[in-house]
């Protein structure tokens, strides 16, 4: 099977890969990557585990909304990077994880597709806003074949309503 990012229309995949690598490189040190379970497949399409390890990610840990336990920290990781969809539920779960983390560890979040104000407000309301570095990563189109794309990030009606005040 050929690498889908190397096909002519796979440039969108390559752009997403480079953007992810740039974000990981801007967060120095060893890190654990905690990924929203719904983003594991799209992440696998744009970045292999060896690529992630090359840029400092020691582990990739799936995160599910229904998981009630905290994720134990890796002794060797200086930082934890969350790759999450922008949603209020994910912001609440992130705040929970930040509050339960050791004081000497750094936390960053990469919001996939866009950073919503409601997520930042929830982090602020939970008292952890200043403890988390926030970034954005757009991976809305992912190449499945050389002429077929997946729109991984559909904008739902609820999300459109959240964005309406910002556009007004």
Automatic annotation (TrEMBL):
It comes from the Eukaryota. It holds the Pfam family Sec1. GO terms for biological process: vesicle-mediated transport. InterPro entries: Sec-1-like_dom1 (IPR043154), Sec1-like (IPR001619), Sec1-like_sf (IPR036045). Belongs to the STXBP/unc-18/SEC1 family. This is Uncharacterized protein. It comes from Ancylostoma duodenale.
């Amino acid at each position: 099977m050929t690498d889908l990012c190397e096909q002519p229309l796979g440039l969108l995949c390559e752009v997403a890969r480079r953007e992810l690598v740039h974000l990981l490189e801007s967060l120095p040190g060893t890190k654990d990557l905690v990924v929203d379970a719904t983003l594991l497949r799209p992440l696998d399409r744009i970045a292999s585990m060896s690529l992630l390890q090359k840029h400092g990610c020691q582990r990739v840990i799936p995160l599910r909304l229904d998981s009630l336990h905290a994720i134990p920290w890796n002794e060797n990781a200086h930082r934890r990077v969350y790759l999450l969809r922008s949603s209020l539920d994910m912001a609440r779960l992130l705040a929970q994880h930040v509050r339960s983390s050791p004081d000497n560890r750094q936390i960053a979040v990469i919001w996939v597709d866009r950073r919503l104000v409601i997520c930042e407000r929830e982090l602020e309301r939970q008292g952890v806003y200043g403890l988390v570095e926030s970034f954005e990563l757009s991976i809305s189109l992912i190449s499945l074949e050389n002429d077929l794309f997946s729109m991984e990030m559909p904008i739902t009606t609820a999300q459109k309503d959240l964005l309406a005040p910002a556009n007004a």
